[in-house]
Design goal:
The protein has ten helices and 20 strands. It is of the alpha/beta class and about 400 residues long. It has one domain: L-arginine/glycine Amidinotransferase, Chain A (5-stranded Propeller), CATH 3.75.10. A four-stranded mixed β-sheet has the order 1-5-6-7, with helices on both faces. A four-stranded mixed β-sheet has the order 4-3-2-20. A three-stranded mixed β-sheet has the order 8-9-10, sandwiched between helices. The relative contact order is 0.15.
């Protein structure tokens, strides 16, 4: 009788285990996991230097396509043909590039582009977030065009879509692929003034399949919003308000890269001190945090990029953007320079570099130090440095300009 009972118990346990395996569960996969493709916009309009955006896009495409396909969005057939000719001249294998049509070209598609979940059976789902123009949206047509990009792409791919009312941008969400999400509190609460952190957490867990959310307090000072007004030293921010991908990224499921600011800066010591305080506060949060299984993280510090500026003459149409400014005024704007705005595409990692011939030796030294850290933490991947400063002038970087599509059974 005892042997019979043991056999029945074993059968029940085995049946339950098999049943659990059959349950399909979706989660947002980590960017360091295998991807099928990288999404990007063919947007060659310049913020600062004509021709630079095209060079960056071509260079990124040529480096990525040996390791992952590129899904390039274009406005129409004419733009597609121009893009193909440019790629061929630059040595891109265009057989690795697939084109999709979308009527509006917005470079930083990370924030409002497709959101892919993958299940334990290798299937994909999409998520449709709301978007409110980084918190301010004066033109409803812009909001509508950007806000529908995620679901438009997901529908083209034939994916089931989970809808949420939360305003959230891809650049402010970072995942370890096991159920932990990092985000910046000031950004999420700013975009959703009628929701509490608890309400946001409940919704993120529902739509993204995560189990735990770690809230960093605030982002880098050079990602502050111009609409909030002048910073210390009569300088404006020029970014999104503090996205996580400027300061903190997962290398693997338990290792985090976190920016580190040296307090001394020749440009303006007070903004260096503010940035130092913010990053160290986030460091303290991460040191006392654990992942979804209660395990502590390994935190690797990486130098914050030196502050760089753009000089802008305020026009009537953008005076409201730079709060407190007036038409004809010349102002200094921090650009969103960051070594952590990088891309992982299977066996290659593209990272920013900031040294140019004739530039400061200290910048070259920092580039080399950062490269060495990346080679250590991604020791099985190829690391390539690219000058993407032109994207920084627009308040983003190459990570902002891309979205990864995870490997799946949905071919």
């Amino acid at each position: 009788m005892k042997k019979l009972s043991s056999g029945i118990l074993l059968l029940i346990i085995t049946t339950l285990s098999v049943g659990q395996v059959k349950v399909e569960q979706f989660v947002y996969p980590a960017e360091f996991e295998e991807v099928d493709a990288i999404w990007m916009n063919w947007n060659i309009s310049s913020f600062h230097t004509i021709g630079e955006p095209e060079r960056i896009i071509l260079q990124m495409t040529r480096k990525i396509t040996p390791y992952a396909k590129m899904n390039m969005m274009v406005m129409n057939d004419s733009v597609k043909n121009v893009a193909i000719q440019s790629m061929l001249k630059f040595g891109v294998d265009t057989s690795r590039v697939k084109f999709y049509f979308y009527p509006r070209q917005n470079r930083f598609i990370r924030d409002f582009g497709p959101v892919f979940l993958r299940s334990n059976k290798g299937n994909l789902k999409g998520v449709d977030f709301n978007y409110n123009c980084f918190g301010e949206c004066e033109a409803n047509s812009i909001k509508a065009a950007r806000g529908s990009l995620d679901s438009t792409i997901e529908k083209q791919l034939g994916l089931e879509i989970i809808k949420t009312v939360v305003n959230s941008e891809g650049g402010n969400r970072e995942f370890n692929g096991k159920g932990t999400m990092l985000t910046v509190e000031t950004v999420e609460l700013h975009r959703n003034p009628n929701m509490t952190k608890k309400q946001l957490e409940t919704e993120y867990k529902r739509v993204l399949g995560v189990k735990k959310i770690i809230w960093l307090k605030s982002g880098a000072i050079n990602d502050d919003k111009a609409q909030t007004g002048v910073l210390q030293c009569d300088i404006y921010g020029g970014g999104t308000g503090g996205h996580i991908d400027e300061i903190c990224r997962f290398v693997d499921s338990h290792t985090i890269l976190l920016a580190q600011q040296l307090k001394k800066e020749n440009v303006c010591d007070s903004i260096s001190q503010i940035n130092f305080n913010r990053l160290e506060e986030n460091y303290a949060i991460l040191k006392s945090s654990t992942d979804q299984d209660g395990m502590p993280f390994k935190i690797v510090r990486i130098p914050a990029a030196a502050f760089e500026f753009d000089t802008v003459t305020v026009r009537e149409e953008n005076a409201s953007f730079f709060a407190g400014s007036h038409k004809g005024q010349t102002i200094k704007v921090l650009i969103a320079s960051s070594y952590l705005n990088f891309i992982i595409a299977n066996h290659i990692v593209l990272i920013p570099k900031y040294y140019r011939e004739g530039g400061l030796l200290s910048t070259k030294q920092t580039d080399e130090e950062v490269l060495e850290i990346f080679q250590q933490v991604f020791h099985q991947r190829k690391i390539v440095q690219i000058d993407v400063r032109e994207f920084n002038y627009g308040g983003g970087g190459m990570h902002c300009a891309t979205v990864q599509q995870p490997a799946s059974n949905n071919k």
